[in-house]
Predict the structure.
Amino acid sequence: MTNRLRFWAVVPAAGVGKRMRVGVPKQYLSLAGRSVLEHTLASLLAVARLDRIMVALAPTDPYWPELAVASDSRIATTAGGKERADSVLAGLRALAEVAHDEDWVLVHDAARPCLKPEDAERLIESLCDDPVGGILALPSVDTLKEVADGRIGATLDRSRVWRALTPQMFRYRVLRDALEKALAAEEAVTDESAAVEWAGLRPRIVEGSPDNIKITRPEDLPLAEFYLERR
Ligand code: C5P
């Protein structure tokens, strides 16, 4: 008998949100009546294929125990790390007892509260037979410039440039090994795909929705509220 492949989620939520210029980490800011993180986790909980959602929290996080979702049976927590990649790796290690090497892991930013569950489901459907995995992304609508010292060095071919979103979906062992090696080599990996690319693989692109914004600056909150209320 072959074991059924399982799907896990890792949510890095250990950031302090320096660019928001507010005291509260951005995942705990209030958005349409609840915290950013609660919206994010509600979207993932709506994806029935996800067996467990591992949330990587800052080692001293006073806000988490207050959330109703903290007691959900499909949610577990672990301590995150210094950078986003460290937090993701901590989440993967915390799943080691239950996840098999071939299982899939969807990594999704805590700060992306407008993820539509159907987009995560489409990612799963599109990639579950893929040898590598891939990410939700959006084609660039702007013309992109390569800049150094405030001056343009080159114009990039827009048709070849996409913006990486999350979730990003990879096999448990592929992602864990890629992150471990990239971190040991002190490679700057700002998403999971970068680590997998660095390991020599070519992740696939699945087109996502423009609503799936990452809360980064204060002006992102009213925009996220607009997207959530429009549903
Ligand atoms: O800061 P940035 O927007 O890149 O953060 C993306 C996600 O990574 C956020 O959900 C943030 O909480 C998380 N993060 C983390 N551990 C860190 C830094 C960021 O889990 N050390």
